[in-house]
Design a protein that fits this description.
Structural class: alpha/beta
Low-confidence stretches: 1-8
Helix content: 10-25%
Largest sheet: 7 strands, mixed
Strand content: 15-25%
Number of domains: 1
CATH class: Alpha Beta
Mean pLDDT: 85
Number of strands: 9
CATH architecture: 2-Layer Sandwich
Distance between the termini: 5 Å
Shape: globular
CATH topology: Nucleotidyltransferase, domain 5
């Protein structure tokens, strides 16, 4: 396919690479809106892509505790983001970046990560692509767990696992299901589709940034 007007970029079909699936949640129940110094948990796991299909992860998700700090966003305005330790955990400076980062509300997570990065690695929004493929439509539940139940009606409950680990496992379930329906480069291309925000019942649903759902022109794909 040719590129969309004014974009001049086509996402080639990716058959091999690493998709880093991650999420960030509060480390404690929030009695008030998040603030500077708020403890948060980052969880992530790498999914290897071979011949366009995901290989089951060899280990449980990693997780780490850090804090929110204030930094300037892409527009020079003060915003909350994770501390540098968590940013480097997900995107270490001494290692090659993954082909793609995947998360539930990717534009929100991108802002929360902070850091001077833009196009690389590519970003896949599970909420937006899940909406496009009607995940959760039957139940009306478009939360991360609701979308995961579209593929696994009764997922195992990790009673002893931190919330962020359960959420990363749900995100992996959604990603694997989407990759049975579509190609990775197409999912990334469609991740800029504009929808209403995800449910406010999600862990960071009370933050004003959660309601921001910026759209953009589609990247094209082969």
């Amino acid at each position: 396919m040719s590129g969309h007007a004014g974009l001049g970029k086509v996402l080639s079909r990716w058959r091999e690479g690493i998709v880093r699936v991650f999420d960030i949640v509060p480390a404690e129940l929030l009695a008030r809106p998040p603030r500077v110094g708020q403890p948060v948990m980052l969880g992530w796991v790498d999914i290897e892509l071979r011949e366009g299909q995901p290989v089951p992860p060899r280990r449980e998700p990693n997780w780490q505790i850090g804090r929110l700090e204030e930094a300037a966003d892409n527009y020079g305005q003060p915003a909350l983001s994770v501390d540098d330790q968590l940013f480097r955990a997900i995107l270490p400076g001494d290692a090659a970046p993954p082909l793609c980062l995947a998360g539930y509300h990717m534009s929100f997570l991108h802002g929360l990560l902070g850091g001077p990065w833009d196009l690389e690695p590519r970003r896949l929004c599970l909420y937006r692509t899940g909406q496009l493929f009607d995940l959760g439509a039957a139940s009306g539940d478009f939360s991360l767990s609701g979308m995961a139940r579209h593929f696994v009606p009764r997922p195992p409950i990790g009673w002893d696992a931190p919330l962020v680990v359960d959420r990363v496992n749900d995100a992996v379930t959604v990603l694997r299901g989407l990759l049975r329906i579509s190609r990775l480069n197409m999912l990334v291309a469609l991740s800029c589709t504009k929808f209403a925000p995800p449910p406010a019942s999600e862990p960071f649903g009370r933050m004003p940034q959660w309601q921001a759902m910026p759209g953009a022109d589609f990247h094209d794909y082969e």
